[in-house]
Amino acid sequence: MPKFKVLPFFFSLVSPFTALASQPALEEVIVSADFRESSWLAAPVSVSVFDAQATKKRAATHLEEMLNTLPNVNFAGGSNRARYIQIRGIGERSQFKEPINPSVGLLIDGVDMSGLGSMATLFDIEQVEVIRGPQGTRYGANALAGLVKIKSVAPSIDQTSNLALSLGNYGSHSLSLASGTTLDQQGKLSVRLALQEQQSDGFYSNKTLNKDNTNGRDELSARFQ
What we know:
- By secondary structure, this protein is of the alpha+beta class.
- It is built from 4 helices and 13 strands.
């Protein structure tokens, strides 16, 4: 066999390994919403995870702005924010339509906020995990269809602060501030406070009332650890 016919076959085997070797190592993502913490790839459930960097890239300030990017996840608003969450078609749609139980659990820093998704703001958030499938063994009836777990940035011995200001159309603006410090020299007691205020006129125009702010927003959220 001529030598020039062997070379292309040789390089077709070597080049994929060369490409794989040049790729940077992926950062390990830990899922904490299951019974035991595990790697994202090793988790025995269908789970989606996004961190503060993903939230920043999308300029998301509320959970609803990230849920619409996830497969098999929907939401409905009892007001002008997503309050009710459905996973794989199962979940509460309003406070008047059965089933009354939320079916999709919402945990914010370990506190059960199921059915109250309108308070799920994303400022100063470390990670959000969305698990599809029944989680009732650990979280009860509120998580029969799945679970959404929001984890804020934890207090640390380092003094850190974060300030954000945003402006938008329809009179939208927000001001957010987070700060944390340690209260003793040994670093055994640390605190962190996050505040966020958002206001908007909304984009609905009510010709009957002659108003353009009938779906406006005036929100103030605070987290303290």
